[in-house]
Amino acid sequence: MSRPIFRASLLLLALAPLLAAPADARPGGGRSMGSRGSRTYSPPPMTQTAPYAARPMERSYAPAAPAPGMNAPFSRPMGQPGFAQRRPFMTGFMGGLIGAGLFGMLSGHGFLGGGDGGFLSFIGLLFQIAIFGFLIVMVLRWLGNRRNGAVGASQRPGFSGGAGTPAVVLNNNDYQNFQQLLQDIQAAWSAQNMRALATMATPEMVSYFNEQLADYASRGARNIVSDVQFMRGDLSEAWREGNMTYATVAMQYSLYDVTTDQFGNVIDGSKTERQVVTELWTFVRADGRGNWILSAIQQVG
User: Which of 72, 121, 273, 291 is the most exposed place for a label (fewest CB within 10 A)?
Assistant: First the structure.
């Protein structure tokens, strides 16, 4: 290998970590991270600003939720009424069908009346079972559609400063605080001011920011976001857990997102092309005595 080629290879190896810098280098790095209390692994309701589902949390200190289907079969929380208690009419209706069908089968007549034994009687039995199964599927589908409609109505998000869930009402000051935190966190990030970040985010989020900044420093790189302009936002949901209040808001903003090397040369991003970002930010505060601080960032779509 000639000396020029050898030197070029060494240069490429040295620049490889810098060239691998992510395009989304702003705070959070374009990932979903943080905690939303008991709702960490539940998707926030969609809003006009964020009309697509949020990506699941990739990093969180919150314990992982049980996987779907891991609960005991037919189990329900203590005190919660069972199907028979919640749907007495449907229970009686289905019970009548089952009772009549079983009685007919046992007496040799089946659901649709008798037939003279043999092969035709067996075919008739299969036909009756198929009808009975179809009725059960239709009833269960009807119940499922009604349940999904009720859930959708109860989770309808507020828009442009709506009150969200009935238990928590936010005011204009709260939304102004969210917008200001967006600006201040981006500024502290660019200045690599961990002390300022520690006053505006939970220890968990601060640890993620510190890890990101340390990674850039180890590669001789630095990420700078500038001219952050808030565009619009609305409330996804707000709720209380104990003495803590959580609020998840969708925010759309634009900015310049540039990563440079130690000499100030741009290695990713652009100083002339703005990026438009839509994210879900979750804030938390202690009721009555606390300021809002950032507890999670989630990507949309």
Answer: 72
